[in-house]
Design brief:
By secondary structure, this protein is mainly β. It is 14% helix and 40% strand. The chain has four helices and 16 strands. The strands form two sheets. Strands 1, 3, 4, 6, 12, 13, 14 and 16 form an eight-stranded antiparallel beta sheet that branches. Strands 2, 5, 7, 8, 9, 10, 11 and 15 form an eight-stranded antiparallel beta sheet that branches. β12 and β13 form a beta hairpin. The radius of gyration is 21 Å and the shape is globular.
Length: 271
């Protein structure tokens, strides 16, 4: 074997090794600093959206596509080239979403209490839509409420909602925790953190760009992040938000009758 052939073979082997190392690294998420600092280092959920994990035909079903809201939401969820899911709502109500893990031993899927929850996402206008009207979201909802089991012996309901990242029009990021209470036969009442709207677009545009959104959920305090930088924090005394396990929801929504898109590259949960 000539020197040139040996050299080319070594270069090829190094290239293959580097490619394999990069691929392995991409397939092995590591917890961000804020998760590690809080003691949440165990990866309990990971969807990289490299394969279909959200349609009835999926062999690796991790989400329920357009489920739980009634009537069923209108829209589409499609696995895109490059490995991400595109959730599109055509601008009619109700909107489109994915709900975490519908098919397993528990019909409404798993639930989590406390941890670090993160997703890499992008918000875009759909066909004929305007990104100013976007209301895409990554949020968490009490599993008891999804199962219609959030009712006490007197018929009163109580449940929690945490909005990890909820777009409110142009470059306005909504980071909210809700304590919901509905007296028997009455109107739902909402108590939430008052300083929940964060205008971030001046220095780092949100619309149309990929960002990582995360929330650190601990007893009595919730802290929100974008690209691992703290955006907001809120200390609360909401009993339901300290006791009720939550289920994840990914949503494409709109404030007006135009089409909107939510792209999701991956979702991680650390506990």
């Amino acid at each position: 074997m000539t020197f040139m052939r040996v050299r080319h073979l070594r270069i090829l082997m190094v290239s293959l090794c580097l490619a394999a190392c990069v691929q392995a690294s991409a397939q092995t998420p590591t917890p961000p600093y804020q998760a590690k600092a809080a003691g949440f280092t165990r990866l309990v959920f990971d969807d990289e959206f490299t394969v279909d994990s959200f349609t009835p035909a999926s062999t690796n079903r991790l989400w329920w596509n357009s489920f739980w809201f009634f009537p069923p939401p209108v829209g589409t969820s499609v696995l895109m080239p490059g490995g991400y899911v595109r959730i599109t709502t055509p601008g009619v109500s109700p909107n489109t979403h994915l709900v975490n893990h519908p098919v397993n031993a528990s019909p409404y899927g798993p639930s989590y209490i406390f941890g670090y929850f993160e997703a890499r996402m992008r918000f875009l206008p759909g066909p004929g839509g305007n990104v100013v009207n976007s209301w895409g979201a990554f949020w968490m909802f009490s599993k008891a409420a999804i199962q219609n089991q959030a009712t006490d012996a007197n018929g009163n309901k109580a449940w929690c909602e945490i909005d990890v990242a909820e777009m409110f029009t142009h470059n306005l990021l909504n980071t909210t925790i809700h304590s919901w209470y509905q007296p028997s036969g009455g109107t739902p009442q909402d108590t939430s953190n008052p300083n929940h709207l964060n205008y971030l677009g001046a220095n780092d545009p949100i619309d149309g760009y990929w960002h990582t959104f995360g929330v650190l959920w601990k007893s009595g305090v919730v802290t929100w992040y974008m690209d691992n930088a703290q955006v907001a924090t809120y200390r609360h005394s909401y009993a339901v938000c300290n006791s009720q396990p939550m289920t994840l929801v990914l949503t494409a929504q709109t404030l007006t009758n135009d089409s909107q898109i939510t792209d999701v590259d991956w979702v991680h949960i650390w506990q």
